[in-house]
Amino acid sequence: MNLADALPMPHRYRGRFAPSPTGRIHLGTARTALVAWWRARQAGGTFVLRIEDLDGPRVKAHATQQIIEDLRWLGLDWDEGPDVAGPHGPYLQSHRLSRYARALEHLQNAGAVFPCSCSRKELADLASAPHGGAGPVYPGTCRSGPAHPERPVAWRFRLDAPPAFSDVLRGPSPPGLGPGDFVVARADGVFAYQLAVVTDDAAMGITEVVRGDDLFDSTPRQLALFGALNEVPPAFLHVPMLLGPDGERLAKRHGATSLAELRERGLTAESIVGCLAASLGLAEVAAPCTAASLVPAFALSKLTTQPVRIDPGTLAAR
């Protein structure tokens, strides 16, 4: 038994899957959704579907309904969500703006945030500075007051010492991960991802967040926000990335990657589940199977901790 299996499941497990409605579900997103669903179902807990639709320009019409259709076709269900309701709704972030406003006010009153007038161009010029995957390190330009008081201001969270954490799958995080002050509300009034996701996870009582490895560097920022909001943080489990045959993040250039495209090619949900289960280390071969059939055998000790390459073009209809 490895460290991951030795960790106890949280009491009254509540997990979630929170996609953005910017397009159809693709293989990498489906893979993470499966792990989140297996984790909740094996624990006998609650699985929540939340739609993170704050990024207006990128949100596509009908994408929320398409996401629901894709996930159900894959064999997943949920106990709370935009189409089944629940005690912690609404389950669309665009309908939860008053909650984010209250959270921002709390941070303002606590002195945990400061107004920042730095422009995007000024921040883009920082891109050559040393930084982690979470973006350039903010140099503290407006910490003592907006450098350009005449401009609209964003609100930036003070992050002096990024909190350490232990990932459920990967163990302790490397020291110094995710430094620098970060935006929680943009100058145009749009609430940032970090504030919205923390506010929602706290309000919905999420006990464990299962998400892709690309968000690993966001975790210290979110843990700092949980602390500033006086909320108990969930555990975090980051699923290793799915890569194309060239070792780069799986994308359209690698061929058909969305569930809808693969379905049109004749692939069944069972064949895709089997392929993704094998890529995760949960099965020795990519044999067709249902998501539900793998719940009893799911074990964190079997999950790979490294990115996995896959060639969508080799997936055959079964």
Can you walk through the features of this model?
The radius of gyration is 20 Å and the shape is globular. The two termini are 35 Å apart. The strands form 6 sheets. A 3-stranded antiparallel β-sheet has the order 3-6-9. The protein contains 9 helices and 13 strands. Helix 2 (27-42) packs across helix 9. The chain has a domain at 11-93 and 240-311: HUPs (Rossmann fold, 3-Layer(aba) Sandwich), CATH 3.40.50.620. By secondary structure, the chain is an alpha/beta fold. Strand 4 (131-132) and strand 5 form a beta hairpin.
Question: Would you summarize the structure shown here?
Answer:
By secondary structure, this protein is an alpha/beta fold. The strands form 6 sheets. The chain has a 3-stranded antiparallel sheet with strand order 3-6-9. The radius of gyration is 20 Å and the shape is globular.
How are the SSEs placed, and which strands pair?
Layout: H1 3-6, E1 14-17, H2 27-42, E2 46-49, H3 63-74, H4 97-109, E3 113-116, H5 120-124, E4 131-132, E5 135-136, E6 154-157, E7 166-167, E8 171-172, E9 182-185, H6 193-203, E10 208-212, H7 219-228, E11 235-239, E12 242-243, H8 259-264, H9 269-280, E13 308-309
Parallel strand pairs: 1-2, 10-11, 12-13
Antiparallel strand pairs: 3-6, 4-5, 6-9, 7-8
Helix pairs in contact: 2-9, 4-6, 6-7
